[in-house]
Every structure is written in C-alpha cells, then in structure tokens.
Amino acid sequence: MTARIIDGKAVAERLRAGLAERIATLPFRPGLRVVRIGEDPASGVYVRNKDRAALAAGFDSATIHLPAETCESSLLALIARLNADPAVDGILVQLPLPPQIRADAVIAAVDPAKDVDGFHPVNAGRLASRQPGLVPCTPKGVMHLLREAGTPLPGARAVVLGRSQIVGRPMLQLLLAADCTVTVVHSRTRDLPGECRRAEILVAAVGQAELVRGDWVAEGATVIDVGINRGGDGKLVGDVAFAEALSRAAAITPVPGGVGPMTIACLLENTLEAALARRSLPAE
Ligand code: NDP
C-alpha cells in the first residue's frame, strides 16, 4: 500500500478562501494584532506569513514588534490596551518569549474572547468542559485534515504522541469530542511503538525528528505529523519517518505542507469566530 498524501496546503487555501468570502459580506474587517518580541528568526518567518495570509483574506491585520529587552509590565500594558480596543478581535503573542517575561502571565492577560491562540486557561477549560470557546489552532487544523481525508472518527482508536498544552492536550479533547477512543503517550510511556501500532489515527506532536518509524504505524492508519524539526542536512522533517510510513499508512501528512499551513488558516478562522461572537453575529 502507498499512502495517500493529505495536501494541507490545498485544504488551508480552501479554508482561507471561504473565510475571505465570509469577510467580504461583513460591514467591518475583523482585526488581528500579532505581538512579536525580539528577533527570534523562526518567529519572524511565522509572523510574516500570518500577516500576509490575514491581509490577503481581508482581515485588518498588523504586527507590533517590540525590542528583546521589553519588560513584562510593558507587554502586559500593551495587552490591556489591545483588550480594550474595540477594533481588535484577536490578539496573538508570538512564543517563545524572552526569559524576563513569564509566558503564563502573558497568556492569562489576554481577554479570553480575543484569545485566538486558544491558550488561555478559560478557553482550555471550556474545551475540556465541552463549552464553546476558542480552540488552539494546530489541533483544530488537524481535525480539519482528518475530516478532509475522510477518516471515520466515531469509535476510531486514536493515539496522540505528546501531551503539551498547545498541541497534545487540546488534541485529546477534540478527538474525544469527535467520539474517538483516545490514548495520549509521552516521554514516560513504557511501550511507545506498541501503543502507536494500535492506532487507526496517529497524531505525532513530539518535536523529535523521525522518532516514529515505519513499523510503529499500523497498516491502513491515518498519520498526522505535527512535528517541525531540522534534519541533519538542514531540511525540515516531521516526527514521523515519512518514507517508511508511506508504505503502511492509508493517508499521511507531509512536512512541510501538511499541518503547518492549517495552523495559520485556523488562526484566521478563530479571528473571524471571535469577531462574530463579540458582535453576537451567527457563525455562518
Ligand atoms: P513540546 O516540547 O511542548 O511537547 C512535546 C511532547 O512530546 C511532550 O509531551 C513530551 O513528553 C513528548 N516527547 C518528547 N520527546 C519524546 C520521546 N522521545 N518519546 C515520547 N514522547 C516524547 O512540543 P509541542 O507540543 O509544542 O510541539 C511538538 C512538535 O510540533 C514540535 O516539533 C513543534 O515544532 C511542532 N509544532 C508544529 C506546529 C505547526 O504549526 N505545524 C505548531 C506547534 C508545534 P513529556 O510531556 O513527557 O515531556
């Protein structure tokens, strides 16, 4: 068997085109503010891509770039201003932050109604209690890809590799809400390959280049690779050994071109959702 490759770039383009169509019908432009602190080069690329995609879809998007030595209280004051600004629907503070700023304090300072990253404890709590809220972009993008791939979800055995606050845990909640039977595995799991082999849906979010070998993948599984790592030759590689998994899986996402483009598209989707919810407008 050779797996079907799930084209995240194409799915993300369709999602963004749908958002642009919806925005064209609105009497206002949803506002997104991305805050970047310091000069982390990877963050620079992400932020530029977010801005470009947001503007192209019709959002009122801007990046606020602060120097690396910015103190926590200045950042919190900026967030308070953005929280109070009626033209701003979504606020995203690009991580990682410099060491003098506590990420938890910053995440908690964003108004949950504008928390388009979905990292605020209120939104994490809503997700876990099955209440409407803003959902973290990467796991939300994974759900879009699974639906696009036509993978049956109710009753499916899903294994999530990784238990981070931004990917693994919300992924567990979303798969559970879709009626999958979910196992979350991590660095203390005893038999990682054995657990993965049981998966009909395998979502890898560990940040370890090609940790998941071909023989960890069940025949016919759907494999979603969230990982973005630099391989030995400097190229981007996922958490899954792609070439090995290709001959076992039924469907698989590539890196790059899989989950990555979906994360930005879902950020825009969240910004539109936040804008509509703040004005009590229907989602459709
Ligand atoms: P974290 O480092 O926060 O979490 C990694 C998780 O993987 C932890 O739960 C950790 O376990 C587990 N883990 C690490 N090494 C192993 C191992 N050898 N065996 C088993 N479990 C292991 O990472 P993130 O969740 O933030 O990101 C994961 C990956 O996804 C990264 O490559 C990141 O770049 C990528 N990413 C991609 C995005 C995209 O847009 N495509 C967006 C966000 C992330 P433990 O908890 O026990 O320490």
UniProtKB/TrEMBL annotation:
Pathway this chain belongs to: One-carbon metabolism; tetrahydrofolate interconversion
Domain of life: Bacteria
Pfam families cross-referenced by the UniProt entry: THF_DHG_CYH, THF_DHG_CYH_C
Gene3D superfamilies with a match to the protein in the record: Leucine Dehydrogenase, chain A, domain 1, NAD(P)-binding Rossmann-like Domain
GO molecular function terms attached to this record: methenyltetrahydrofolate cyclohydrolase activity; methylenetetrahydrofolate dehydrogenase (NADP+) activity
Residue numbers binding NADP(+): G162, R163, S164, I228
Keyword Amino-acid biosynthesis included in the entry's annotation: yes
Domain Tetrahydrofolate dehydrogenase/cyclohydrolase catalytic: start-end pairs: 6-117
Annotated Tetrahydrofolate dehydrogenase/cyclohydrolase NAD(P)-binding domain residues: 136-276
Enzyme Commission identifier(s): 1.5.1.5, 3.5.4.9
Sorted UniProt keywords: Amino-acid biosynthesis, Histidine biosynthesis, Hydrolase, Methionine biosynthesis, Multifunctional enzyme, NADP, One-carbon metabolism, Oxidoreductase, Purine biosynthesis
Catalytically driven reaction(s): (6R)-5,10-methylene-5,6,7,8-tetrahydrofolate + NADP(+) = (6R)-5,10-methenyltetrahydrofolate + NADPH; (6R)-5,10-methenyltetrahydrofolate + H2O = (6R)-10-formyltetrahydrofolate + H(+)
Functional description taken from the UniProt entry: Catalyzes the oxidation of 5,10-methylenetetrahydrofolate to 5,10-methenyltetrahydrofolate and then the hydrolysis of 5,10-methenyltetrahydrofolate to 10-formyltetrahydrofolate.
Subunit structure as annotated in this protein's UniProt entry: Homodimer.
NCBIfam families, sorted: PRK10792.1
Protein family per UniProt: Belongs to the tetrahydrofolate dehydrogenase/cyclohydrolase family.
Name of the featured protein: Bifunctional protein FolD
